[in-house]
Amino acid sequence: MFFKKKPKPPVKKVTKKWEQWEPTIDLSNIDKKKTVELKQKVEIKTEKMPVWTYSKDFLNEFNKLTRTHRPFDVWRDFVIMFACAISNPLDKFHYKDREERYLSIIHKYSKDEQMIFPKLAAYTTMALDANPEQDFLGKMFMDLGLGNNSAGQFFTPYSVCQLMADVVTSDLDNNLQDKLEKQGYISLADECCGAGATLIAAINTIKRKMEKAMPSMNFQRHLLVVGQDIDETVALMCYIQISLLGVAGYIKVGNSITDPMTTDDDKSKYWYTPMYFSNIWVIRRF
């Protein structure tokens, strides 16, 4: 006895929700004038935030942390953690100590407070990306009233630093190419770097001179920055900013008079920028 094989039931097409959706606007009937106006509105919304808003937003977020913590303690913790976050992905020699230090600091804050620190780092990064010609952290430090007048701790206005940079680098107008051919790079040093305003101004000045002399040159391959400061907090402010500017170099925490840089130094006091670990600078160190 033979049985006929039952035919397979027809497969029902399941219409998914997104297949049921239909545009509520018929594109063929759109007024071109209104389309242009709509496009302009969208373009306005997608523009970058004005530079000044980064400062405003930074201060607003920072002040949320000062309701339960001392302002200077918050600032110091922010700077140390941000510096550790920049250093640890590449500087494995100091990774363990700095990671432990980072964790010991962040655990002092609640979960909600912890979420504010990445915002502060983001505003700093975006501010320097939008306008590299500034000492952003130095300005925020002074705007928050954290300067120590009794210790003579105040930051030089950036406009003054620009003038100083123009004077100090004036010799490069005539012999920039000769120096690069002999050494391969230009070096900058500041033995009392503070938050880095003078170095930042000099970096931007030399960058412009290099681009003018050799438009195709990548200044990041031909500029080395070295700084030192006795105050760890401001030294790390400098480290953060030159790192975000994409410059190769390092900052030492210590007294440049009683503890100057030497070849047999304690390397735990040194903070190397990410660019310093790029291939060209690794080769130059050996």
TrEMBL record:
The keyword Methyltransferase applies. GO terms for biological process: DNA restriction-modification system; methylation. Keywords: Methyltransferase, Restriction system, S-adenosyl-L-methionine, Transferase. The keyword Methyltransferase applies. Residues 149-281 form the DNA methylase adenine-specific domain. It comes from Agathobacter rectalis. SUPFAM superfamilies: S-adenosyl-L-methionine-dependent methyltransferases. Its EC number is 2.1.1.72. Pfam families: N6_Mtase. GO terms for molecular function: DNA binding; N-methyltransferase activity; site-specific DNA-methyltransferase (adenine-specific) activity. It catalyses: a 2'-deoxyadenosine in DNA + S-adenosyl-L-methionine = an N(6)-methyl-2'-deoxyadenosine in DNA + S-adenosyl-L-homocysteine + H(+). It is an enzyme of class 2 (transferase). This is site-specific DNA-methyltransferase (adenine-specific).
